[in-house]
Amino acid sequence: MIGVTGATGFIGKHLMNALGDSAIPINMRDDDKDIMNLLMENNIKIIIHLANPTPSINQDDVGKKGIELGERIVDIADSIGEIYFILISSIRVYPNGFETFDKNTPLEPIDEYGRGKVAVENIIKKSKHRVLGLRVSSVMGIDLDGTPRGLIGTFVNQSMKYGELKVMGDGSAKKDLIHVSDLIQLLLILVEQKSPKSDLFLPVGGGKSWTVLEIANYISKETNSEISFIEPAIYELSNSVNINDICELSGWSPIWTIENMILESVGGLE
Known about the structure:
12 strands; Rossmann fold; four-stranded mixed beta sheet; 270 residues; 9 helices; single chain; 21% strand; alpha/beta
């Protein structure tokens, strides 16, 4: 059986649907003993660790809470034996200033969310458990309640409510976007494969990046909306992701284009 933390989140809900009866949700609000019993009773040998606070204005809380969740799940796993962790990390572990992120890009997070992700990677890496860490780019798609998510979802919602897209800064920051269904397909492949012989941490994305302004322009044309510019974000990560290593490891490749992500989100709100 496969345990999933963060099973009620955007990615988690899609993952639980895809895994069906082979997955057990791990509620990190339960006490440690109950979680330990759940893992033992269901003979869980793989944990996909999704649980993490969403990035917010209170950056300190985001980093600390993410670390606390990582420490707890590792401590619980320690008490029952060796677990194979598939960790959903983030490209926010990387710094600005690199044209493309790959497995050799140094870890220099620009915010507390990214620093929390690095800390959780290290917690699992230093434990007795095996880990494959996926440093995932921005995840797009439609939530199970029909709400478009991610940057595209934000822009589409703005266009429908206000007839205007608000672009932070000049819109020149590049964004690699991955559709939630592509990420789920990767996870389904990985749980069927043997775990790597040694711990691995690899970037994962859609394989193509657009600037924020290019994304906004496309959506504005589809929705007949205006574009305005506001103050830049404090923590703005510009990125492209080299996905060659994860593709070679898994045999996976993303299917969704950014154009189709936009069209799905626009159509989902009509």
